Amino acid sequence: MAHIHLEDGSFTLVWVVVWWACALLLIGISLYLVRSAQKPDNRRITIAAFCTAAAFAIFQISIPVFGGVHINLTPLIGILTGPAIGSLVVLIINILSAAIGHGGWSMIGANTLVNIAEVAVAYATWRILKPCIPGLFPRAGIATIAGLLCGNIAMILIIVISGVQGVNQGTAQILAGLSLLAAVNMGVAVIEAFVTGMIVTYIGKVRPDLLRGERP
Amino acid sequence: MIALPEKKGLLIFLGLLALVIVVSLAAYQMTGQMDIKERFSHAVGLEHAEDAGKEGSGWFGLSLEGSPLLYGVTLGILAIGCYAAYLHFSV
């Protein structure tokens, strides 16, 4: 997963405001899309609630792989709820995580953007691959890897654009360091891809109606 | 018997996984053993030593970020909310 693990004060106030504004703009668009739906989809709202609880629960746990990494289930959120509701879910998870002391409050905007990228790309990959890869497990796995890769790229871009206060490294050095970090981070994408693939396959077997666009 | 499109999907997925594992292991070899916060601080050039010695705590190396009490309370509230939504919307 991609998550900016920097303390409050790492970004200047201007960049904190910029990333918050971008995140709120996307959240506003998501809210508009959800509210403009002809009929509220109660089933999807319930799935979103379950996704929020599950992702919050697992996101706070550091797994002893490569020294310690997190799973955050954002691709699963994208696949099950879509990008509009998924964006709202990741905002709530980021706020709750900051509230219990995991991540800085000023980083919520940037981290929400990173997670929205994961949700949206995973959902798009899941939908686009449907005609050529009908199998739920490999399609969900590939969507997870694509989503997490884009999340890592978004994370690198946000940090490189913002810069980090109190460091003397140049942009090239930070970019090199973050690229290595993202490559290590992608190791957990393997675990997350299997977890997501298995969950989606299970849902596809027992409740295929819960998978958007899949034939029951 | 696995159908051809299914087999193709699995092969692409496994190939992608193999690639990701190789790249991750290579990057891990280059950076060494660090927890996620240390790795982040090191990547951007920040000094960070407050988490040293934290590794290995918890069950089977799993550790919790943030306050365990708040984690439990929040998770409990979310679980109750999920149960209420499940009953209310009759999913």
Helix and strand succession of chain A? HHEHHHH
Order of helices and strands of chain B: HHEH
Number of helices, counting only DSSP H or I runs of 4 residues or more of chain A = 6
DSSP strand count of chain B: 1
Global Rg of chain A: 17 Å
Approximate shape of chain A: globular
Tell me the span between the first and last alpha carbons of chain B: 34 Å
Which class of secondary structure composition applies to the elements of chain A?
mainly alpha
| Secondary-structure content class of chain B | mainly alpha
Structure description:
- The complex is a heterodimer of chains A (216) and B (91).
- Chain A has one domain (13-211): Arp2/3 complex 21 kDa subunit ARPC3 (Orthogonal Bundle), CATH 1.10.1760.20.
- Chain A is 70% helix and 1% strand.
- Chain A has helices at 13-35, 42-59, 74-99, 108-128, 136-162, 171-206, and one strand spanning 61-62.
- Chain A starts with 12 loop residues before the first helix and ends in a 10-residue tail after the last helix.
- With 91 residues, chain B is mainly α.
- Chain B is built from three helices and one strand; from the N terminus they run ααβα.
- Chain B has helices spanning 4-31, 36-44, 68-89, and one strand at residues 63-64.
- Chain B starts with a helix and ends with a helix.
- At the A-B interface, α2, β1, α3, α5 and α6 of A face α1, α2, β1 and α3 of B.
Write the layout of secondary structure elements.
The complex is a heterodimer of chains A (216) and B (91).
Chain A: H1 13-35, H2 42-59, E1 61-62, H3 74-99, H4 108-128, H5 136-162, H6 171-206
Helix pairs in contact in A: 1-3, 1-4, 2-3, 3-4, 3-5, 4-5, 5-6
Chain B: H1 4-31, H2 36-44, E1 63-64, H3 68-89
